[in-house]
Structure formats: C-alpha cells, structure tokens
C-alpha cells in the first residue's frame, strides 16, 4: 500500500529523517514509535505529501506520491491531526462535511445525496451524531478528536494517518478510539499508520511497529520483536522493563523510575508467632512468586501469613474468608501473601543461611497426612483426602529474574521431595515414596536489590543454599512433629 | 456563551436569512436617502427610485428639485456607502477565515494603509496610467494593498512560523504605522491640498457621485466571485493550511486567490472612500454569530450586512451634529474599537479554557 524507499528529508536542508526504507501492507496497523525528535512527524508529513523530501521515494499504491494531485491524494489518504484548531465555531456536521471536499466536482462544488450519506454514516460510526449541530468549540477534547476522526472517515480513505491520536485523551477514550480503528481496519481493509507515544498502545494494537532513533530506522517488525527492553532502553535512554500482557499475546512495557538502591536486609524481617498464625513482617516490600491462596502468582508483599486452621475447616469461598480474616487482624490482603495449613505451627522448621554471597531465610510447616507421589498420583481415584499440607517460605536477598524465580521454585520443590523420601514418607495409596502433599504451597520472596540472579538451579550457589535450607527445614518440621507425637 | 439556534443551513432558513438581509438593505437604502438636511418622505423616495428603475415618469406631486437631490446627490452617496460596506465586510470575512484570525480585517492588517498610500501617491503626483484612465486610482490602491498584505504576512512568518493571531495583528500595526507615516510625509509636502486629503483619509463617501460608484462596482463583483469560488476552501483553511491540504485543498492556489480577491475589495474601497476601519472586523463577527461559519453563505450574507451597516453609519455621520458632517471613518472607529477589544478578550479567554 505504502512503500518508502531510501527516504531522507527535513527542514531547511537539515536531515531529520535519514535513509528510511519500509513498506506498509493493506489492512494493517503500523505504529511509529521513537523518542521526541526522532523524526516521526517529519516522516508522517512526507508520507502524506505535506513536506517535500530531499531524496528517496514514497510510493502510494505503487505510484510515486508526486504523481498525485492534492485532491487525488486526499481520496486515498486521510490524516487525523494531533489537534486541529479553528477560531470559529463550526458545527460538527460542517466539520465532518469538509472530509467530502476531494469528491466535490465542478466550480460550484455541489454536494450530492451520497456525500450527505457518507457524512451521516461516519458521524454515526464515531458516535458524534448526537451533537451534529453543536459547535466544535463546545466539545471536550475526546469528543473533538472523534469529530476529526469522523471527518477523516468521510474522506473514505484507503490509508489513514494518525499523529498521536490518543494525545490529550483519557484512558477510556484512548481505548475506544483504538478499538474503533481496529474494527474499521478489520471491517474495511483500511490501512493505518499511526505515530504513537504510548508503547503499550502500540504493542496492543499494531500489527507492525517501526522504531525510529535520531531519524534512522532502528527496527521494524511485530510488537513482540520490537518491544525488547534492551533495544527500547538504548533508544529511549530510560529504564524500561518488558512484561507480558496478562490476557493478550502482546508485550507490555513498564517504566522503572530511577531510585536509590535502598538497603534491604533480611535480618529486618520479624516473625510474630502464635499457635494460630506465623506472620513474617518486613519493613520493605519483596517481590514474590507463590502458589499461595492470597497473593498467588507474582506480587509485591511485605507481610507473609502462614495460618493454622482446624482440620475441619471447610468454606466455599476460602479466599474471601481468608481476606476477611486478614482484615480482622488489621492486615491488607493486597500487601500480603497468605497460606493455610492444618499442621501445627509450633513444629515449623526454620533456618537462616548466609554463605557464598547468598542470604536466605527459610521456614517450612509440614503435615504429611495427605502425602502424594506426584509420579503415581494418576493411579488415585477421586476420594476424600485426609488433611495435610507442606508450606515453604523462602526469603532471599538479591535481584531474581523471572526465570530465576521459576528455578528457585523448582529447586525448592525437588529438595522437599528429597526430604520426604529420606524421612520415609510414603504415598498411602501407592505405597511409593511421596513427593509432596496434594495442597502444598511455596512462596519465593526476593528483595530485588543488589546483584542480579538469573539462575537458581540446583547447582548454582543460590540453588544449593535453597536446596539445603528447604531440606533441613522440612526435615526439622517432620522431626518436631514426630517428637511431639511420641510425647504423652 | 449562548449560541443562536440557527446553526445549519436548511433551505427554508436560508431563504429567510437572505430575504431578511435583502429587505433590511432596501430599507436602509431608502432611509438613507430619505433622511438629510432636506427631509424627503420615505414614500416619495420609493416613488422616485421606482420611476427611475422601471422607466416611468415621476409622479407630478414630487418636486423636480427633490428628484435631483435624490438622484444626483443622495442616491449615489448611499449606494457608494453600501458598496464600500459590502467590499470591506467581504474582505474582512475572507481575511478572518484565511488567517484563522478573528481580529483580522483590512484595517488591522495594514492593507487599508497600503491602499491609502497608493491612492495618495496617485493624487499627489497626479499619475494617470494609459488605458486605465480614471481607474488608475483604484488599480494603484489595489496593487499597493496587495503588496502590503504580502509584506505583512511575510514579515509575520519571519517572526513566527505558525502565524498566531497576535503576531499578524502586530505586524499589521507595524506596517500601518510605517505606511501612515509615509502618507503623512507626502501630505505635509503638498501643503495646500492638506485639508482635502486628510478629510479623504479619514474616510468619507460624501460628494463623490456616480463616477465613484462605477469605479468600485466592477471590483466588488469580481472580488465577490473570486471569494465565492473559494468558499469551501475557506472553510477548510480556517482549520489551518496543513489540515486543508490533507483533505485535498490546493492551498497555494486558493490562498493566493483569496488574498487577491480580498485585496481587490479593500483597494477599491479605499480608493473611493479613504480608510474606513473596523467594518471588516465587526460585520463578519455579527454575521457568524447569526448564521454560523460556512463561508458559502457567510460571505454573501456578511457582505449585505456590511452594506446595511455602512449606509446606517453614513446616515449617522451626516445627521448627528448636522449641518457639520463627521468623517465616516471616525465614526466606525469609535464604534469598532471597543468591539475589537471585546472580541480580543473573548478570544483569549476561550483559548485559555480550551
């Protein structure tokens, strides 16, 4: 649809855009991103014929852009400007009707019924029809933007160029506008090229993203390839971190504010223990990955609750009940990771490790009434289970990557299985050594400061420390339980 | 701000609008002829005019001296006032639309001063160009006005690329002062004809006769047609050149056409009546408030409203301290300046809030 070939250009003989080549396919949304002054708007102006270029060529539908008259071009390309201001109060309908200008014929430029119909349709499509006879000066920023979109649509273009379309719009309008565009791209095979400031909008809505840096093309490709934190950091000179969208197969970019690396020392974590709860309180937040009932998955937390419940505890909505419980003891569930267990808390094993630069605090509570061999659990029939849970809490100093978290989790689980095997805990159904129980939880909490730890596999220093500490604490907990059972 | 309810141009509303303004115009003309040092009954005025237009004899009960006053003195004067008002209002509307500037008019842009200098040069040096004859004066005025306009816009662009409202007006004021000074210099050098030229500079439509009507009429018609042919483009241009370009407007061509048309109008108006300010500022505003912004109708409606306004102001100018006549430009400035101030304040406030 659009083919840009070795394009260079700028103002007053200066090159703002330098030797760009890329093409845009029909029916796709292409986003142009890049820092201020990277040449986004200049490039846009050259694509829509507003600015003559110094060298190179822009082909629109395989013909050089210079071979089109202004009117011919306007029938193919419509532009949604960042802001169009008029000092006069045109009505919404008059503004939208301007979009029909390239179709008027003759000296008098009369409008036909078809023109009126297109104007009406585009007003309805963008939802501005209800204020068709209102002055545009009386509309809000979001409404005005939609009016301008309606005007662009009235041009019945094949290509729509947008310059920061979501600027000045609140969150809901940004989404609405982009959703509207997406519908239209899919419904009418429209081609969209948009300058976008918001990397997340670009990632979510674009089929193709062009990253500009100082007038040169840094990269072009699908959002998944362009939204690379290293590349973006080098272009934007800003601390950025890539995340995955929770529901779409698209990356998200998180800004990381500059901060003093505050001192976070595990020894500042305090344990408050009662027969009913073990509460670890930390003066700072830790990044956690856990399978806990409260605050499961990734989260930041400063309170960690291991709660003892009665064997007969049975509520429909355990999460809600747990949250209410946390409120009742003045804890905020949003800052808390919470697990439940029927095991006695006083049997808990706990250890603090500091070796080879790894600092750990690990606590485990163990109930094995419900031991399962994961490798053989498929042999079980659905039957009521006796109660029993192993909860493992691992606090560590250091900056864990996502893969580091997963490796730490694996290491902890394997160490737990090893401990169970060595203490002769068997799956009562299969008679084979148990690997855990059916309701185990693990929480890995890292301070995320200091040195980066990318690996926590079993033979890394971190992995060795985790394995040892988990093995020890699970073992201690089992021993404590057995000792208590022997007592009269 | 409460908006008038007549916002869109449905057919019936259009007919009513045009009909009303036309009626108002006829009434103003008749009133302008009727009132004066020798009052002539309105009914007689209509009879005399009717007789001349439809070529039947003037009824016997009307004195021939009265017919003479009407046909030789008052009617041409009123018609000239009307045409000047039309021309100024039209060019004001065009300037405001083109420059997206609610404060623009021939006077504030300095075009009037340029035209006036052109006219003074013709009068001072007694220039008479071959083939042009009596049209030397308006043609020279128009050319000078056009050149001034180009100069003002070029200068404003040097100061600020995007031509903000205030920059253009300041550039206009600067040019105005400079050209005004040159004009004054020329007048000072002439000595004897001083009073006459100053009177003319302040703006007047008295004692001009039909010759001056013939001088301005063709330019008014040409200017109107040129502007009407660019009416849709003016709508687009009032959102900015880039925006207009993106919907397919040939910006260069139409900007040139509008500037040329508006200069024709301003130059010819100044040539016949001197510098009359603020008509081109006030009238387009009133017209926009009543009829909206679509230039296809705003241009002709605003033009006729300008005619009405000018006839009435002229009427006021010659009756208010009769028998002495006030220069009409003085009166329009007295009426127009405060309105300019109000528009300016409102514009700035609106800009701050949006």
UniProtKB/TrEMBL annotation, chain A:
Transmembrane segments: none annotated. Residues 2-239 form the ABC transporter domain. The keyword Nucleotide-binding applies. PROSITE patterns: ABC_TRANSPORTER_1 (PS00211), ABC_TRANSPORTER_2 (PS50893). GO terms for molecular function: ATP binding; ATP hydrolysis activity. The keyword Metal-binding does not apply. It holds the Pfam family CbiZ. SMART domains: AAA (SM00382). InterPro entries: AAA+_ATPase, ABC_transporter-like_ATP-bd, ABC_transporter-like_CS, AdoCbi_amidolase, P-loop_NTPase. Keywords: ATP-binding, Nucleotide-binding, Translocase, Transport. NCBIfam families: PRK13548.1 (NF010068). This is ABC transporter ATP-binding protein. It comes from Fictibacillus enclensis. The lineage of its organism: Bacteria, Bacillati, Bacillota, Bacilli, Bacillales.
Automatic annotation (TrEMBL), chain B:
It holds the Pfam family FecCD. InterPro entries: ABC_BtuC-like, ABC_transptr_permease_BtuC. Gene3D superfamilies: ABC transporter involved in vitamin B12 uptake, BtuC. Its main location: membrane. It is a multi-pass membrane protein. This is ABC transporter permease. One of its GO terms (biological process) is siderophore-iron import into cell. Keywords: Cell membrane, Membrane, Transmembrane, Transmembrane helix, Transport. Belongs to the binding-protein-dependent transport system permease family. FecCD subfamily. The gene is btuC. The chain crosses the membrane at residues 12-34, 78-95, 107-127, 134-156, 168-189, 210-231, 257-286, 298-320, 326-345. One of its GO terms (molecular function) is transmembrane transporter activity. The keyword Transmembrane applies. The keyword Transmembrane applies.
């Amino acid at each position: 649809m659009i083919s840009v070939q070795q394009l260079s250009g700028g103002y007053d003989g200066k090159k703002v855009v330098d030797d760009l080549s890329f093409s845009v396919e029909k029916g796709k949304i292409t986003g142009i991103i890049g820092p201020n002054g990277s040449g986004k708007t200049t490039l846009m102006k050259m694509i829509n014929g507003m600015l003559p270029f110094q060298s190179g060529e822009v082909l629109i539908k395989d013909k050089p852009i210079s071979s089109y008259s202004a009117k011919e071009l306007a029938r193919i390309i419509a532009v949604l400007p960042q802001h169009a201001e008029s000092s006069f109060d045109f009505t919404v309908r008059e503004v939208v009707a301007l979009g029909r200008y390239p179709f008027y014929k003759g000296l008098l430029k009369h409008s036909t019924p078809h023109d009126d119909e297109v104007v009406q349709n585009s007003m309805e499509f963008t939802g501005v029809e209800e204020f068709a006879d209102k002055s545009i000066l009386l509309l809000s920023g979001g409404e005005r933007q939609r009016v301008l979109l309606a005007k662009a649509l009235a041009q019945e273009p094949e290509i729509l160029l947008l310059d920061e379309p979501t600027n000045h719009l609140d969150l809901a309008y940004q989404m609405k506008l982009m959703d509207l565009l997406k519908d239209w791209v899919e419904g009418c095979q429209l081609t969209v090229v948009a300058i976008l400031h918001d990397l997340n909008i670009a990632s979510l809505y674009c089929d193709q993203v062009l990253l500009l840096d100082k007038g040169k093309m840094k990269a072009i490709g699908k959002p998944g390839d362009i939204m690379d934190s290293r590349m973006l950091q080098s272009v934007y000179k800003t601390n950025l971190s890539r995340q995955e969208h929770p529901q779409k197969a698209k990356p998200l970019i998180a800004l990381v504010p500059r901060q003093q690396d505050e001192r976070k020392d595990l020894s500042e974590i305090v344990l408050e223990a009662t027969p009913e709860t073990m509460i670890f309180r930390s003066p700072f937040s830790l990044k956690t990955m856990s399978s806990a009932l409260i605050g499961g998955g990734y989260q930041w937390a400063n309170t960690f609750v291991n709660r003892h419940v009665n064997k007969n505890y049975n509520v429909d909505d355990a999460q809600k009940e747990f949250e209410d419980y946390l409120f009742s003891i003045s804890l905020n569930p949003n800052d808390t990771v919470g697990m439940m267990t029927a095991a006695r808390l006083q049997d808990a094993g706990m250890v603090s490790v500091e070796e080879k630069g790894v600092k750990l605090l690990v606590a485990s509570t163990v109930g094995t009434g419900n031991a399962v061999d994961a490798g053989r659990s498929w042999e079980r029939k659905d039957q009521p289970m006796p109660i029993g849970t192993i909860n493992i809490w691992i606090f560590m100093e250091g900056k864990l990557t996502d893969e580091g978290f997963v490796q730490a989790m694996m290491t902890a689980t394997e160490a737990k299985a090893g401990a169970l095997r060595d203490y002769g805990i068997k799956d009562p159904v299969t008679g084979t050594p148990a690997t855990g129980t059916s309701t185990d939880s693990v929480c890995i909490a890292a301070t995320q400061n200091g040195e980066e730890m990318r690996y926590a596999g079993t033979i890394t220093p971190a992995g060795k420390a985790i394995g040892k500490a988990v093995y020890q604490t699970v073992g201690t907990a089992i021993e404590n339980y057995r000792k208590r059972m022997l007592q009269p | 701000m409460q908006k008038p309810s007549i916002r869109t141009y449905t057919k019936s509303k259009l007919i009513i609008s045009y009909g009303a303004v036309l009626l108002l115009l006829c009434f103003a003309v008749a009133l302008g002829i009727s009132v004066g040092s020798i009052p002539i009954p309105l009914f007689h005025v209509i009879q005399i005019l009717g007789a001349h237009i439809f070529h039947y004899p003037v009824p016997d009960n009307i004195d021939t001296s009265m017919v003479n006053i009407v046909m030789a003195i008052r009617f041409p004067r009123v018609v000239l006032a009307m045409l000047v008002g039309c021309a100024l209002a039209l060019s004001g509307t065009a300037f405001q639309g083109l420059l997206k500037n609610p404060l623009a008019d021939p006077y504030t842009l300095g075009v009037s001063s340029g035209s006036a200098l052109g006219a003074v040069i013709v009068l001072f040096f007694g220039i008479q160009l071959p083939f042009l004859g009596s049209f030397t004066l308006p043609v020279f005025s128009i050319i000078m006005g056009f050149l001034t306009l180009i100069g003002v816009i070029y200068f404003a662009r040097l100061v600020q690329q995007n031509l903000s409202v205030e920059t253009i007006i300041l550039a206009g004021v600067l040019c105005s002062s400079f050209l005004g000074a040159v004009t004054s210099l020329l007048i000072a050098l002439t000595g004897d004809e001083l009073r006459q030229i100053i009177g003319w500079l302040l703006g007047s439509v008295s004692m001009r006769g039909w010759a001056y009507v013939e001088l301005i009429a063709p330019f008014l018609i040409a200017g109107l047609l040129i502007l009407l042919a660019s009416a849709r483009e003016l709508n687009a241009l009032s959102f900015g050149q880039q925006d207009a370009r993106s919907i397919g407007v040939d910006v260069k061509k139409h900007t040139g056409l509008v500037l040329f048309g508006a200069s024709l109008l301003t130059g010819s108006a100044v040539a016949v009546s001197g510098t009359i300010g603020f008509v081109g500022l006030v009238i387009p505003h009133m017209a926009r408030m009543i009829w909206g912004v679509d230039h296809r109708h705003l241009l002709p409606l605003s033009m006729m409203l300008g005619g009405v306004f000018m006839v009435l102001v002229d009427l006021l100018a010659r009756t208010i301290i009769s028998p002495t006549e006030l220069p009409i430009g003085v009166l329009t400035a007295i009426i127009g300046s405060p309105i300019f101030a109000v528009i300016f304040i409102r514009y700035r406030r609106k800009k701050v809030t949006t």
